[in-house]
Each structure stands twice: as structure tokens, then as C-alpha cells.
Write a structure and sequence with these properties.
It comes from Komagataeibacter rhaeticus. InterPro entries: Sig_transdc_resp-reg_C-effctor (IPR016032), WH-like_DNA-bd_sf (IPR036388). GO terms for molecular function: DNA binding. This is Helix-turn-helix transcriptional regulator. By secondary structure, the chain is mainly α. It folds into two domains: 27-67; 70-105, no CATH class. The protein is built from four helices and two strands. A two-stranded antiparallel sheet has the order 1-2. Strand 1 (76-79) and strand 2 (86-89) form a beta hairpin. Helix 1 (24-36) crosses helix 2 (41-48). It is elongated and about 90 Å long.
Length: 105
């Protein structure tokens, strides 16, 4: 007697069932440009109308680190407490960018 069941293998379902919500191919150049200008992740997300966690996840997924290079090992990447822009501080205790320091000092 033959088995009445015939196994038909259907094509596997795709992992993603809906299209991506954001077109990162279009957004990536804008993100790179804003980060090279010294904008923080928060400021970049605000200017592009993105959720900050979405942008952080994208940067982490693609291993995109800080856009501002450091010259010496004692320099530290900071975000200004006043204007929220990214800058490289000469010491670990500096929390204001040079423009805000000049304005307040």
C-alpha cells in the first residue's frame, strides 16, 4: 500500500514580510554629511526627522562610529551640554564646545 500523503515542499517564506520603513540608501549620505559637520546622533536624528533609537541602531548595525577623528590619546569625544553639538575635548573635564566656552567665558 502506498502512502496517501504526498509531500510538496513549498518555497520558504521570506523572513521580512513587509518592506523596510526607511530608505537607508537615501538617508545614509545625509547622515554621513551631518555627522561630518559635527552633529551629535541626537541632533542628526532631529534634523532628519528620525527616532534617535532607530538611528542609533542603524549606526551600531553598520559599525559606524564617531565622525570626528582624534589626534592624541588624551582627547575625548564629547557632546556640548549647551548646544548639543559633538566636539573633541582636550581633557576629560571639558563639557562645553569651544564656541560655547567663548560665549560663556
Amino acid at each position: 500500500m502506498k502512502n496517501a500523503h504526498t509531500h510538496t515542499h513549498a518555497a520558504p517564506a521570506p523572513h521580512r514580510t513587509r518592506p523596510p520603513r526607511l530608505d537607508w540608501g537615501r538617508l545614509a549620505p545625509s547622515v554621513a554629511q551631518l555627522r561630518q559637520q559635527g552633529c551629535s546622533t541626537r541632533e542628526t536624528a532631529r534634523r532628519l526627522g528620525l527616532n534617535i533609537k532607530t538611528l542609533e541602531a542603524h549606526l551600531r548595525r553598520h559599525r559606524i562610529r564617531h565622525a570626528i577623528p582624534m589626534d592624541r590619546p588624551d582627547q575625548v569625544r564629547r557632546t556640548c551640554l549647551n548646544c548639543d553639538s559633538a566636539f573633541v575635548a582636550d581633557g576629560r573635564f571639558l563639557r562645553l564646545c569651544p564656541e560655547c566656552r567663548a560665549m560663556f567665558g
